[in-house]
Amino acid sequence: MTLSCIAPQFGHRDQPFTVIGGQGLFIETKEYGQLFDATAGYWYNILGMRHPELMSIKAELGGVVSHLYEDWTNPWAEDLALRLCKMTGKQQAIFAATGSMACENARKEAVAYHLSKGRGEHDLLFAAINGGYHGSVGLMLDIADPRKNKVIINGPVVYPNNASANNAFEEHKKYLSSFEDKIKEQEKKGKKVAAVFYEPVMGVRGAVELPKEYIRGIQAICSAYDILLIADEVTTGFGRTGVMFVSQQFEKDGIRPDIICLGKGLSAGHYPIAVTLVNEKIVESWKSLEGETEREFAYVHRRGNGIAGTPEGAAIGLQVINTLERDHLPELTKQLGGYALRRLQPLTKLPNVRAVRGKGLLIAIDVKDSLYAKHIKERLRKEKKINMIPEGRMLMFCPAFTITHNDIDRVALSLEDVLE
Ligand SMILES: Cc1ncc(COP(=O)(O)O)c(C=O)c1O
């Protein structure tokens, strides 16, 4: 078969390359030959390419497309839903194919919650933290962009390198009170902020960790105004930052999101599967909406997506969790991430590097500007045989958790060379 249209659909991403295979930490590309993959695909191949345990599930269940939708379910999806709910303290799981869909489904469940309280769908607004990223479908694309959304939350203060922002208490108080002002202003116009989306460690913004007092402050405002808290752990979930989920860690500090969105690491890049986990508040809203024909049609019968939670995807999800737990990979990621940060930190002495920041194996090397980042990307591929996909100004170091100390040394030395 000949493809008549190859590159145009990727027009927004320049210098695309074609990956024709791969194994472990290496990818095989048409243009550059074999590359060491320092971004785990796009942060999702957490166990490396073609992981043997996951590939054998694909061989066994690959042809079974019995999806999970409405009344139709399957044992793997039931097990995975139960396992994820137990791990996160949530009550129900809604499967989807991508992280963007999981976030958009979370928004829809927040709408259901507010409908059940008698609020009008068209009066609802959604808030997010400035510069966050929650995907590319529905309202998610623009939600964290202050030019497009009226109820953006400013902050947190970002210090160079890894300095804790917890002492930026006064600034954070200002940001939070300005958020509260925005809520009140909208209420005067008859609008209601329905939910706040946040990433516990902001990926695209450059591995920026939310300080606890800042997110706790947001939670306090949410409780006061009956606003739901939605943790987008699409990137941070499944060990990326050195813990299985940051929300489990935050729980010790009294931070409890109503909804958690997961994707990427859930299948370690071996199948398109993502999930939205909801708490009892949302489940109660489903019950109270039952019988309201018009709303029920929109928000109860339209829950979930076709070809989501398939046997193959769910079985892979279960195996990923088993492997992460059995091999203690979140703990390992914490150690490797600490080593990588120490190893990469000296880069900040170079004139073109603004900062090196990160948590676990979610690390950003913040460079001069986005054009320079693209130039470095190309040099890394051509001269060092390393793939590192930037996000704007940020060179993202987010490898598979199977990376070794030697591999980290190799990436650090290569960066030293090209970031002249
Ligand atoms: C925090 C976060 N949320 C949502 C998404 C969207 O996930 P996907 O690309 O699988 O749709 C991403 C993707 O990078 C992300 O980083």
Q: How would you describe this structure to a colleague?
A:
This protein has 420 residues and is of the alpha/beta class. The chain has two domains: 27-47 and 328-418, Aspartate Aminotransferase, domain 1 (Alpha-Beta Complex); 60-325, 3-Layer(aba) Sandwich (Aspartate Aminotransferase, domain 2), CATH 3.40.640.10. It has 13 helices and 17 strands. The protein has helices at 40-43, 52-61, 75-88, 99-116, 169-188, 212-224, 246-251, 280-289, 293-299, 311-326, 329-344, 370-384, 405-418, and strands spanning 19-23, 26-29, 33-37, 92-96, 124-129, 152-153, 192-198, 201-202, 208-209, 228-232, 259-262, 274-278, 353-359, 362-367, 386-387, 390-391, 394-397. It has a seven-stranded mixed β-sheet, with helices on both faces. It has a four-stranded mixed β-sheet with strand order 1-2-3-15, with helices on one face. Helix 2 packs antiparallel against helix 10 (311-326), helix 3 (75-88) packs across helix 10 and helix 4 packs across helix 8. The chain is globular. It starts with 18 loop residues before the first strand and ends with a helix. Residues 1-8 have low confidence and may be disordered. Bound molecules: pyridoxal-5'-phosphate (PLP). Pyridoxal-5'-phosphate is lined by residues 98-100, 103, 133-135, 199, 203, 232, 234-235, 263.
